[in-house]
Amino acid sequence: MSSVDPGIFDAPLRDQFETFIDEHRAGLTGCLDGLTEEEARRSLVSSKTTLLGLVKHAAFVEKVWFDEGISCRSREEIGIPSTPDESFELTEEDTIASVRQAHLEACAASRAATAPLGLDDLILGNRRGPLPLRWVYLHVLRELAQHCGHAEILREQILDTRR
Fold first, then answer.
1. Is residue 90 classed exposed, middle or buried when 0-12, 13-18 and 19+ CB atoms within 10 A define those classes?
2. Domain 6-160 maps to which CATH number in 1.20.120.450, 1.10.150.120, 1.10.10.10, 3.90.190.20?
3. Distance from first CA to last CA of the chain, Å, rounded?
4. 163: helix, strand or coil
5. pLDDT bracket for residue 8 (50, 70, 90)
6. What's this model's pTM, rounded to 2 decimal places?
């Protein structure tokens, strides 16, 4: 991941949250850079986790927290899986380009959905009940950080097989 702009240290808290979230979003999609379709789909662990699946799951996360959470629409209405586990499942149509594009679009929609909100505004559509945007930002940042760590390890294993 790239280093954070030193100017962000003095920026408003919301800008800090959004900068870190965007860096982690980019880091996660960046895990697919230079990989073949087979490598991106390669399963190296017993779970459904693959690099392509992680990015697909990250698009699901965006839609859960920032579409379902803010719009209060159901997952069925949004067109996403009902469970996180299902969000890792890849179809024949899933490619690096299509999954990356879906993730970029989900992130853009998340930014648009949160733009009019303040950090203390409540997100009403989450299954946990009303949550302030600041808590949602922290949760999403934590989840993205975990998945970036998973992706770095999987990518390292894949690249090691090239030697």
1. middle
2. 1.20.120.450
3. 23
4. coil
5. confident
6. 0.93
